[in-house]
């Protein structure tokens, strides 16, 4: 960027979150909880200083020309306006950005998780609670410089981390924006909040960029994945490979003296009615192939949204007995760290 445009970009950063409804936060500060800047900076800061972060961003941008960012492998040229399964263009589109207090406690702390909701989605679950964003694509397109300003603005209102929700299909723009934000002083952990439908080869490109991975593990059975997530029969295979790679990079979740997540893997599993999600097998995989110290959020908040009422098997909330059964399976597998 030119000197003038960089000055405008940094000036705008302080106000970026104020343009999105729902912003909350404490005093305007870039410091971590506990007072004073952390000496343990996220690894993306070093990648920025070495120039590696910019190189990775440019390499990722090339993938837009024959898109293979997710397991759908649509191979469309998004730079020429072609749209694949996710319906995303080559320009980042976001729905909202604010200090989120509804995430897991190691992310929220006292000042919230700096959450950015990206529009569209490649997985397209028919029961999605955010269907207006993920399926209908509500939001606004913004340039990479603007996204960097949003990141810096979230840090500026005191958020403990930058939480990227459903980011994969906009990954090239996100990494480019992160490089710009690091130049502007971004220094809080980066959270990759994903549905788990990821290619391990793409996740490998994020080694040293992402501090905290927060994937879902939605299904164990390919038939159930295909039925409820737009023919994503290969979801279980790719989810297993992606979880292994994420764990290889960052290990089990680590927190600081204030209970705030600094690095690691936080796994979400949404319990579905009638054992549709294959919960027992999912927990056994986590314990056996990742770690019994894995931090797991066993989620009970499923409700039949969007098109779910058309499918009798999932057209109800789960029962107390089903949730208790799921927790029993988790403990049976040897898991012991659960979100509260």
Helix-strand layout with pairing:
Blueprint: H1 3-13, H2 43-50, H3 52-62, E1 93-100, H4 105-108, E2 113-118, H5 131-134, E3 140-141, H6 144-156, E4 162-165, H7 171-183, E5 190-194, H8 200-204, E6 212-215, H9 222-228, H10 235-250, E7 254-255, E8 261-270, H11 279-290, E9 295-299, H12 320-333, E10 337-338
Parallel strand pairs: 2-4, 4-5, 5-6, 6-8, 8-9, 9-10
Antiparallel strand pairs: 1-2, 1-3, 7-8
Helix pairs in contact: 1-6, 2-7, 3-7, 6-7, 11-12
Q: Could you characterize what this model shows?
A:
- With 340 residues, the chain is an alpha/beta fold.
- The chain has a single domain, classed as Aldolase class I (TIM Barrel, Alpha-Beta Barrel), CATH 3.20.20.70.
- The chain has helices spanning 3-13, 43-50, 52-62, 105-108, 131-134, 144-156, 171-183, 200-204, 222-228, 235-250, 279-290, 320-333; strands at 93-100, 113-118, 140-141, 162-165, 190-194, 212-215, 254-255, 261-270, 295-299, 337-338.
CATH superfamily: Aldolase class I
CATH class categorisation: Alpha Beta
CATH topology: TIM Barrel
Mean pLDDT, as a whole number?
91
Largest sheet: 10 strands, mixed
> What is the 3D shape?
globular
Reported CATH architecture: Alpha-Beta Barrel
Helix content: 25-40%
Distance between the termini: 44 Å
- So how many helices? 12
Oligomerization state: single chain
Total number of distinct structural domains: 1
Which structural class do the helices and strands define?
A: alpha/beta
Radius of gyration: 19 Å
User: Unreliable segments (pLDDT under 50, ≥5 consecutive)?
Assistant: 1-38
Sequence of secondary-structure elements? HHHEHEHEHEHEHEHHEEHEHE
The tally of beta strands, per DSSP, is 10
- The amount of beta strand, in percent, is 5-15%
């Amino acid at each position: 960027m030119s000197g003038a445009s960089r000055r405008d970009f940094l000036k705008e950063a302080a106000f970026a979150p104020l343009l999105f409804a729902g912003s909350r936060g404490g005093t305007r500060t870039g410091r971590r909880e506990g007072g004073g800047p952390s000496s343990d900076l996220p690894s993306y800061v070093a990648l920025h200083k070495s120039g590696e972060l910019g190189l990775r961003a440019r390499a990722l941008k090339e993938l837009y020309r024959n898109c293979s960012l997710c397991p759908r492998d649509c191979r469309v040229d998004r730079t020429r306006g072609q749209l694949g399964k996710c319906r995303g263009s080559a320009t980042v589109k976001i729905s909202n950005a604010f200090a989120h207090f509804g995430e897991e406690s190691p992310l929220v702390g006292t000042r919230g998780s700096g959450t950015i909701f990206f529009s569209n989605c490649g997985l397209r679950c028919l029961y999605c609670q955010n269907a207006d964003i993920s399926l209908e694509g509500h939001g606004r397109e913004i340039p990479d410089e603007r996204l960097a300003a949003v990141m810096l603005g979230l840090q500026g209102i005191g958020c403990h981390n930058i939480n990227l929700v459903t980011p994969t299909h906009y990954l090239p723009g996100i990494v480019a924006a992160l490089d710009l934000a690091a130049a502007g002083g971004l220094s809080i952990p980066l959270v990759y909040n994903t549905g788990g439908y990821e290619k391990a080869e793409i996740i490998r490109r994020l080694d040293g960029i992402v501090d905290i991975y927060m994937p879902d593990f939605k299904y164990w059975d390919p038939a159930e994945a295909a039925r409820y997530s737009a023919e994503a029969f290969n979801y279980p295979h790719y989810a297993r490979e992606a979880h292994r790679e994420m764990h290889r990079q960052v290990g089990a979740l680590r927190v600081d003296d204030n209970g705030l997540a600094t690095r690691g893997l936080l796994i979400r599993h949404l319990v579905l009615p009638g054992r549709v999600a294959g919960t027992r097998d999912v927990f056994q995989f986590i314990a056996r192939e990742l770690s019994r110290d894995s931090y797991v959020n066993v989620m009970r908040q499923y409700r039949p949204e969007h098109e779910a009422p058309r499918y009798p098997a999932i057209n109800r909330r789960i029962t107390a007995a089903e949730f208790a059964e799921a927790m029993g399976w988790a403990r049976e597998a040897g898991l012991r760290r659960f979100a509260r």
